Amino acid sequence: xxxxxxxxxxxxxxxxxxxxxxxxxxxxxxxxxxxxxxxxxxxxxxxxxxxxxxxxxxxxxxxxxxxxxxxxxxxxxxxxxxxxxxxxxxxxxxxxxxxxxxxxxxxxxxxxxxxxxxxxxxxxxxxxxxxxxxxxxxxxxxxxxxxxxxxxxxxxxxxxxxxxxxxxxxxxxxxxxxxxxxxxxxxxxxxxxxxxxxxxxxxxxxxxxxxxxxxxxxxxxxxxxxxxxxxxxxxxxxxxxxxxxxxxxxxxxxxxxxxxxxxxxxxxxxxxxxxxxxxx
Amino acid sequence: xxxxxxxxxxxxxxxxxxxxxxxxxxxxxxxxxxxxxxxxxxxxxxxxxxxxxxxxxxxxxxxxxxxxxxxxxxxxxxxxxxxxxxxxxxxxxxxxxxxxxxxxxxxxxxxxxxxxxxxxxxxxxxxxxxxxxxxxxxxxxxxxxxxxxxxxxxxxxxxxxxxxxxxxxxxxxxxxxxxxxxxxxxxxxxxxxxxxxxxxxxxxxxxxxxxxxxxxxxxxxxxxxxxxxxxxxxxxxxxxxxxxxxxxxxxxxxxxxxxxxxxxxxxxxxxxxxxxxxxx
Lengths: 280, 280
What we know:
The structure is a homodimer of 280-residue chains. Chain A is an alpha/beta fold and 280 residues long. Chain A folds into two domains: 2-100, no CATH class; 124-271, HAD superfamily/HAD-like (Rossmann fold, 3-Layer(aba) Sandwich), CATH 3.40.50. Helix content of chain A is 45%, strand content 12%. The first copy, chain A, has helices at 2-18, 35-51, 69-77, 92-100, 103-120, 144-148, 159-168, 175-187, 202-211, 231-244, 257-260, and strands spanning 130-134, 141-142, 172-173, 190-198, 219-223, 248-254, 269-271. A five-stranded parallel β-sheet of chain A has the order 5-4-1-6-7, sandwiched between helices. In chain A, strand 4 (190-198), helix 9 (202-211) and strand 5 form a beta-alpha-beta unit. The model of chain A is unreliable at 1-23 and 31-64 (pLDDT under 50). Chain A binds chain B through residues 1-2, 5-6, 8-10, 13, 17, 36-37, 44, 46-47, 49-51, 54, 61-62, 67-68, 70-72, 74-75, 77-81, 103, 106-107, 109-111, 113-115, 269-271, 273, and chain B through 1-2, 5-6, 8-10, 13, 17, 36-37, 44, 46-47, 49-51, 54, 61-62, 67-68, 70-72, 74-75, 77-81, 103, 106-107, 109-111, 113-115, 269-271, 273.
């Protein structure tokens, strides 16, 4: 058994060494010199995660200073961890490998598969009133190129540099979400974008969405400049308006719990993974 | 780098071979003959998870028949996967290792650490009206000894054999939850058990809780025999009664989303991991 496992590891590492292209064709490298591991991440990401210590330099499982990064991430996704400001410094490498190494994409795929199965099972009225709400950042578009240069969420959020990045209009489509988006249109369910991006970013947001292949949305709802209030307050208020206008929100997908909490939530909600930041 | 990793693997496997005692002192073995891996699970569980294929015999990442078990588990914990009947057959080994190999305990610890930090930060009225709701199965008591003999959730639920197991009164305390329970009592917050176990199981449930070291709860609320309705309906109804009686539910912890959804939820909710079954 032991020999067989060593062989598995050896084969994985050899495959990694000969692998050339990074996953998701992002062409992003980890900030530190971990070339072999980066390449390996595309081939056998969980292996890399496992070999990498789950905690900081203490090497201790969350008792003295360290935090077990996979447990931290689960606590974030299950809404046990709230109101956090930054990713634990010890977890930069873990989150980076999670995001770039295939794990994030695999987790997202399972969520979207579930969403599509749900949508396909709906009995639609066919009156054109059924809509599905999509968040934008880290849901429809990925800002991973930005976060990869800024510590994968370990650095405090910098509005200036992030907004400059948004204005480039270079965020990437999340392929899983785009698959859901296109499927819904084919089913006759209308996508509505609902985002914490502000109204003055409308033009570049439209450009970015189109560049990345999104077509056919019904509405793009942005936050008024100077809006005071929480993300939940803004987004649930907009969903209420949709409902009051006669639309039926059959689904709602976002990467933040604040995207999918607050009545009316939508008939069914989906939480995409996001271990990089928290919006309350 | 590659050599260093091979050494890590080798050392882990050697340590595993010489390890004697199972984790959590449960003395449960995986049903199939995986002695080396079982032992290793206590030493380096994530390593074992990684070396074990994440999917079924197809070895395929969720595209043709297989399901990536870690992504499936995340989808369960984040409430993306709902109304599922059994753990995917391919994931029996994965779930077994998750539950027995330290990962489950580590994930639970992070949730409870968060709950304790929250409780310690509360400004209490000190009038004895503040309560915290605890679910029982897979929250306060663990039925892992039962599920380990029944495929870790891959077998359809068998009420007859499970109820026979409950009547043994041999379920184990979840040490993390017990730590929260004791901490709350020391803070002056009163624990209330609220369970889907039925009223005719009250006596053995009390015996089991006491045997496992639980003392000082304020109420033990069980479901009436023959109750028609959902788990959410029953539990939210009981929480409403608590509130109407003048209690303030400062916290609520369970392993099922149906433990913590439905107004009044409690001021803050905590979702413990449970990849073995779903109660809607």
